[in-house]
Amino acid sequence: MSAPELIRDPREWQRRCREARQAGRRIALVPTMGYLHDGHLSLMREARRRAGADGLALATIFVNPTQFGPQEDLSRYPRDLSGDLAKCGQAGVDRVLAPEASAVYHPLHESWVDVTSVSQGLCGASRPGHFRGVATVVMKLLHLSHPDVALFGEKDWQQLQVIRAMVRDLDLDVEIAGMPIIREQDGLAMSSRNAYLSAEERVRALSLSRALFEAGARARGGERRAAALQAGARAALEGAGVRVDYVEVVQPETLRPVAEAAPGSRMLVAGFVGRTRLIDNVGLP
Ligand code: PAF
């Protein structure tokens, strides 16, 4: 497939998307922060499929500063625009928006989207302001792109619920599609932040998916008590040298903790392997 068109200016992007919509073309959007891996590419291939032959498959590549805390990895977040563009082309993306932060945020920017309840707890508790930054930039990208459908990975399960709540509450006319987690062969959930891991840390990072799969197996075997499932996963993570941020069994939409796992309940984990914070999750049977 050919290289996508690269657009830097959000206003030009918005004008071109408006024209496409007026011409009756279907638009499928994949927002990313770049440094693309197979998880992103699965979203892009699905965007291509959903846009159809006459439609537009769009991707954005923007490391959004407002979703990083002051002590977080904004400055060292991995970037590779030319490699990303080649991958977007192979996945069938037609156009990529890769703006400068100064083109996205006005110097006097003062408007924010706060999704209150589902943003609290879990990653929201340890990363204050993170989901406000995510919701605000996703709202801006939706306004700029006018998509029929926007696709997000289920690895960021809480993010997906925040975006769904925002779309529901603010009557946005867009379908939000959640796509399954793509894993390495050994189970590690694909993430741009895996690039930070040393060989030894990568081995330890495997404990996240293993702890989740083990909890899933125990739930299948009849263990429904969330506390028991969480304790088992936490012990496995700590045993592998992961500094646990949280291990929670939750209702999948509201993310409220549950005492008993029910079909569809989700187990979410976050932890530090060295300096790298990783997250993963699994649906419980
Ligand atoms: O999941 C991500 O890569 C980002 O949080 C997103 C949705 C592109 C917003 O910056």
Please count the helical segments.
10
Shape: globular
Structural class: alpha/beta
| CATH topological fold name of the largest domain | Rossmann fold
> Main sheet?
6 strands, parallel
Strand order across the largest sheet? 1-4-3-2-5-6
Helix content class:
40-55%
CATH superfamily of the largest domain: HUPs
CATH architecture of the largest domain: 3-Layer(aba) Sandwich
The averaged pLDDT comes out at 98
Q: What ligands can be seen in this structure?
A: pantoate
Return the domain count.
2
Order of helices and strands, N to C?
Answer: EHEHEHEHHHHEHEHHEEE
Distance between the termini: 39 Å
Extended strand count? 9
Cα Rg? 19 Å
Poorly predicted parts: none
Strand content: 15-25%
CATH class of the largest domain: Alpha Beta
What does this molecule look like?
By secondary structure, this protein is of the alpha/beta class. The chain folds into two domains: 5-179, 3-Layer(aba) Sandwich (Rossmann fold), CATH 3.40.50.620; 192-280, Pantoate-beta-alanine ligase, C-terminal domain (Pantoate--beta-alanine Ligase, Chain: A,domain 2). 40% of the residues lie in helices and 18% in strands. It has ten helices and nine strands. It has a six-stranded parallel β-sheet, with helices on both faces. It has a three-stranded antiparallel β-sheet with strand order 7-8-9, with helices on one face. Helix 3 (81-90) links the parallel strand 3 (56-61) and strand 4. The longest helix has 22 residues, at 199-220. It is globular and about 55 Å long. The termini are far apart. It binds pantoate (PAF).
